User: Fold these one by one.
Assistant:
Number 1:
Amino acid sequence: MSHGKFITLEGVDGAGKSSHVEWIAERLRAQGHTLVVTREPGGTPLGEKLRDLLLSESMHLETETLLMFAARREHLAQLIVPALARGDWVLSDRFTDASFAYQGGGRGLAGQRISELENWVQQGLQPDMTFFFDLPVEIARQRLTASTANPDRFEKEDVAFFNRVRKAYQNRAEAFENRIKVIDSSKSIEQIRVILGKCLLSI
Ligand code: TYD
């Protein structure tokens, strides 16, 4: 049986990935794939409860990281792995690159710690393709303020935090250049769709 493909979307808050989720999903369905659209933290009933905690309660950095990976373990077991095994495709709004960017880059947790959890929880499973929506942090912040009435615990962080998150994403994009496609989010929606469409045909 053919194995489905796993695609993830990443970027700093406000970089515009959310506006492309539905379009990418439609495009993949038009290419004939059965698709599961999901998100992290979340994607399962337990994962969504953990998401509520993660976005609202202050906690130790390692607790935050462990809960992200606890939600991810559940997500993989209940949803992602069975879907891929059925031959479905999976599109997830964020995955482990976000842990390296936010808990690693943003909050300063050692990458080694995150890698240990990644190896444990994922057992070698990686996305087939990741779109990193990249935008100067100042512009992302303006977009976020315009669209978000009640910022969550991450969205309340300062510009320096988001610059570290962005840098960590950029470093990962360099390190995994075959998997991570950098999308210049300052381009128009139409221009971005042309680029996304080409990448999706190449998977
Ligand atoms: P986000 O997709 O931005 O939710 P929304 O668009 O509804 O605001 O994700 C929620 C937050 O979770 C985001 O600020 C990044 C953070 N996050 C981490 O810090 N680490 C992780 O591993 C993941 C998956 C998300």
Number 2:
Amino acid sequence: MRVVFIGPPGAGKGTQAALVAQRYGIAHLSTGDMLRAARDAKTEIGKLADQYMSAGQLVPDDIILKIVQQRLQADDCRAGYLLDGFPRTLAQAEALDAMLAHQGTPLDSVLELRVPEEELFRRLSGRGRSDDNPQVIRQRLVAYRQQTEPLLDYYHRRGLLKTIDGLGSVEEIFHRIQQVLDPLLEPPRQQSSEVPR
Ligand code: ADP
């Protein structure tokens, strides 16, 4: 199962993505986590990415694409994966499509986790990550609206988009997600049609 998770910062993608990965036995690929790991390891890519992240701006597409392309080759992605925080621009979405078409492994579904902006701001302000100060939060929301929201239309036109209400308890939201993803699972094997005597 190959799934993309789209939603604004603070929508709860990370929390739900971890649950989804566990429930469906697929890899959880968070580009935000990858970039933070690179930053903390002080690699060249990490240092470069940090300049954008700490300003609430998107890291340039070529950097992200290189990281994702490599990560998708790993063994744990063969059973499927959930992309959390990628793609975030139309160019990334198109590059992903091209990559997956080339491998013959198209996406199965794109989930949008939708949460009203006041609620996002409230949640992010209480979180305390280094890019969670008000000015940077505002910039991340702007980046979402301008660069990532157009993807909703892109995937809607391809018949892949499902919107999930992101308000409620973690369990309630996970239940909504399962209602969308469960039907994508392989159908259970037919029981023997012999009627027991
Ligand atoms: P959030 O969704 O809360 O903003 P993430 O952990 O997904 O948090 O991302 C943190 C930061 O990492 C983003 O603000 C951005 O700078 C960078 N980033 C993550 N994924 C991408 C991506 N696909 N393209 C560009 N930048 C990204």
